[in-house]
Amino acid sequence: MKKTTGTDRSITSKWRPATRAVRAGTWRSEQGETSEALFLTSGYAYDSAETAAARFRGEDPGMTYSRLQNPTVAMLEERIASMEGAEACRVQSSGMAAMTVALLCQLSQGDHVVAGRAAFGSCRWLVDQLMPRFGIESTTIDARDNQAWVDAIRPNTKVFFFETPANPTMDVVDMTFVCGLARERGITSVVDNAFATPALQRPMEFGADVVAYSATKLMDGQGRVLAGAVCGTSDFINNKLLAMQRHTGPNLSPFNAWVVLKGLETLDLRAHRQSENALRVGRFLEGRVPKINFPALPSHPQHDLAMKQMDAAGPIFSFEVEGREQAFAVLNALELIDISNNIGDARSLMCHNASTTHYSVSAEARAEMGVSEGMLRLNVGLEDPQDVIDDLDQALTRAGL
Q: If DSSP states are collapsed to H, E and C, what string results for the chain?
C-alpha cells in the first residue's frame, strides 16, 4: 500500500488536532481511494519462504496475521497516536480491553497500584477484584487530593491509574501534579481519557505516560461498535504492551476500526457542539435539581482546573435527585432522551449508575466514590438542546421536582 503525507510525522506534526482527526494515518492502495480501505482478511500471503521468515523476525515491515497487524487497523492506530501526540498506539477490542492490557502488561505479583476511587464500575472491578487475584496490591484514593497521591506511594508502587473527568462523579484530577509526581518517583501514570478524547483534552501535554480509551464512546460517536485504544511511547507499546496483546488476542476487528476512522472525521465538530449543548442543559438543571456535577459550570469546585486542562468540558455530566425511587421516576418519564448506559453518542442518553454501570461495585465502594442512589448520568447529544431541556423539565416535574 502507498502511504500518503498522513503518515509522515514531519508533516502531520504541523497539523492541528482537527486536521489530524481527518487526515493522519491515511494509507492508499493502488486504486487511490480517498476513504480508507477496509481489509477484511485474517492472514496474508508471502512472495517467498524467506519473506515470511523475515517478517516473523521483524526484519520485513509487511503483515503477518491480523491479530498483530491489519492495514485498516494500522491506519486507526496511526491516526489516534497523531491526535494524542503519542509515539505509538495499539487499538483493542473494547475500552475495557484497553484498560486491562494497559495495566496488566506492566504489573506483576508484588507490585502496587494507586488508583482514583471515582471510576467506571468495571475499572474499579479491575483494581478491587482482578488484580488482587494475581498478587497485585492496590490503594484507592480521592484523586482530587494531591497529597493523597503522595501519601499512598509505597516502595513497590508501579502505576498511578485514574480517570479525569471521572465516571460518573466528574471528579477532575490535577494531571500536572499527579503525572509529575509519578515521573519523579519512577511510577507510570495511566490516564483514562474516554470522557474527553484528544479533541478536548490531551493528557500527554500534562505529563501522562500512557493514555487509554474506550473508543466506543465519543470516537465512534454514534453507538455502532466497540473499540479501545492505548497510547504511549514506542518503547512502552512495543516492548511492554505488544507481547500481551499478541498472546492474549484482544485485537480490534478491521470493520470496527474502519467505523471508528469514520467517526474520527467528525469528532472535533461533535465534541465541541455536544459540549455547547451540554452547557446549555447544565445551566437549566443548575438550581432545578438538588445537585449537579459538571465541571463546565463555575459552581463546580474544580471548574478552574478543568478549564485549564480541557478545551471544553464535554457532553457528559451527572446530577442528583432524592434517591433511587425518584431517579427511576425521572427516567421512566422521559420522552426524548433514551435510557441507556452508553455515553459519547450523538443521541442524548441517561442512566442510573448505581443500578447499571456501577452495579458490580459494592454498595460501600459506591458510597466511597460518591455514586449515590439518586445519581443520574446524562450524555447530551446533537439534538436541539432546547428539546432536551423541555424533556428534562417535564420528566422532573412528573417525578415531583
A: CEECHHHCHHHHCCCCHHHHHHHCCCEECCCCCCCCCCCCCCECCCCCHHHHHHHHCCCCCCCCECCCCCHHHHHHHHHHHHHHCCCEEEEECCHHHHHHHHHHCCCCCCCEEEEECCCCHHHHHHHHHHHHHCCCEEEEECCCCHHHHHHHCCCCEEEEEEECCCCCCCCCCCHHHHHHHHHHCCCEEEEECCCCHHHHCCHHHHCCCEEEEECCCCCCCCCCCCCEEEEECHHHHHHHHHHHHHHHCCCCCHHHHHHHHHHHCCHHHHHHHHHHHHHHHHHHHECCECEEECCCCCCCCCHHHHHHHCCCCCCEEEEECCHHHHHHHHHHHCCCCEECCCCCCCCCEEECHHHCCCCCCCHHHHHHHCCCCCEEEEECCCCCHHHHHHHHHHHHHHCCC
Half-sphere exposure of 150 (CA within 13 A, CB side): 6
Helix axes 71-84, 254-264, angle to 10 degrees: 40
pLDDT of residue 29: 85
What pLDDT is stored for residue 268 in this prediction? 96
State how far Cα 217 lies from the chain centre. Answer: 7
For residue 203, the model assigns a pLDDT of 98
- State the burial class of residue 197 (Cβ atoms within 10 Å of its Cβ: 0-12, 13-18, 19+): buried
State the pTM of this model. Answer: 0.95
Q: Give pLDDT, residue 6.
A: 79
Residue 17, pLDDT score = 82
pLDDT at 61: 87
CATH class of segment(s) 267-398 = alpha beta
Taking 50 as the pLDDT cut, the residues of the chain under it are: none
Domain residue spans in the chain? 2-264, 267-398
Q: Record the cell numbers describing residue 38, joined without a space.
A: 477496509
**CATH code of the domain made up of 2-264:** 3.40.640.10
Same fold, 2-264 and 267-398: no
* Those residues with Cβ within 8 angstroms of residue 210's Cβ, 6 or more apart along the chain or in another chain: 102, 188, 189, 190, 191, 230, 231, 232, 236
CB atoms under 10 Å from CB of 298, counted, come to: 9
